Amino acid sequence: MDPSAGVIEDGAVAVGGGRVTAVGTAIDLAGLTPSRTVDCRGAVVLPGLVDTHTHLYQGLARSLGEGRPLWSWLTDFMWPYAAALTREDARLAALLGAVEAARAGTTSLLDHHYAPADPETVLAVAEAVEDVGLRGVVARGMAGTPSAVARENGLAGGLFAHPTSAEIELTRDCMTARPPDSRVAVWPGPHNVTYADQALLRASAELARDAGTGWHTHCSSTPRDPETYRRAYGTTPVAWLHEQGLLGPGATLAHGIHLTDAEVRMVGETGSAVAHCPVSNQYGADGVLRLRELRAAGAVVGLGTDGAAYNHRQDLFECMKQAVLVQRLHRLDPEAAHSHEALALATREGARLLGIDAGVLAPGRLADLTVVGLDAPHLTPHHDVRATLVYAARGSDVRMTIVGGEVVVEDGRCTRVDEDAICAEALDRARAVVRRAGIV
């Protein structure tokens, strides 16, 4: 994904000190004497995939809550589930999701975590992600003082646990414990521009600027969001963020689907970022991102899986394919998106969104790599390797995942944690959670 290099046939990558030290053909690198050589013949080596929006705490609710519009899905299903989670439930869900992501070639992720959101749980979730070997961000979810929109639409409840000032201080404490240079850092993560307290959004952006981090929130996910916001405030979510000076390189907006032409320009001109979740957008019938318009305007766009209860898989290969296909179907135009664009979103652009020095295979960059086997029937032949990765490959084709030069998945299994024990405990905890929540 380094624009100057393209695809290197019979290529090789050298790694040392957690970073890429050389990239070229196998002949070019033949003079090196590494401590370990990994034979990747019959495979493709690419930058590690970056998931820019997920909710790992949802992992114990996989396959539940189907067939509801988003706000009903939240109030009638997700809020009761979230309220029933314990700290250990959230930690196990994070371990389960991180294992699934690592096995599917994800090396970095942004977890928007808000259940439970006490500092001890937030830090336990960050530790769980790091225990699996991944890097990334836990955006601490906050609702703050209930807004009129939240109260009027039945959203105010248990997750609005603290007033805005207290939420900011709790997040500040988490960020002190997990600063920007941590393998898994903490960012401010107000729930949603539409129903969060406006003072919370302003304070979150200010806290992020002071700490040198990004901040993360849901924005304009459904047609209802901007309509509701306009009735309450006389403007739209992105227009308000722009008016308040809250957009910019640190602002990362999940979904960002229902934007006007003016809002697309606002996001692009300020260098703000959008986490595009094409599978979950289809699952909830939420809409289609204005992908090329946002990128042409200057926005950073990465790919996200979204949570296991609103997507059901932590597999960016599936998201890459759907990122292309949904654009083509929506516009009835086979030229509306291409495989190389989707691959860029999942690697180079995702790393830009998270602010990490990865996403391309080039000397000096972080040694976050994914190795995908190409010898399966569904990957044979592979004339165009980029198209093969986007349309034919899936997470289960990943042979090896490397983060900072460390092999965290080898032969399709995590090296740091006991996958079988995690799955067994997750099953037990999931049954108990749904009973407590009264979901099934």
From TrEMBL:
<protein>
    <submittedName>
        <fullName>Amidohydrolase</fullName>
    </submittedName>
</protein>
<dbReference type="InterPro" id="IPR006680">
    <property type="entry name" value="Amidohydro-rel"/>
</dbReference>
<keyword id="KW-0378">Hydrolase</keyword>
<dbReference type="InterPro" id="IPR011059">
    <property type="entry name" value="Metal-dep_hydrolase_composite"/>
</dbReference>
<dbReference type="Pfam" id="PF01979">
    <property type="entry name" value="Amidohydro_1"/>
</dbReference>
<feature type="domain" description="Amidohydrolase-related">
    <location>
        <begin position="44"/>
        <end position="408"/>
    </location>
</feature>
<dbReference type="GO" id="GO:0016810">
    <property type="term" value="F:hydrolase activity, acting on carbon-nitrogen (but not peptide) bonds"/>
</dbReference>
<dbReference type="InterPro" id="IPR032466">
    <property type="entry name" value="Metal_Hydrolase"/>
</dbReference>
<dbReference type="InterPro" id="IPR050287">
    <property type="entry name" value="MTA/SAH_deaminase"/>
</dbReference>
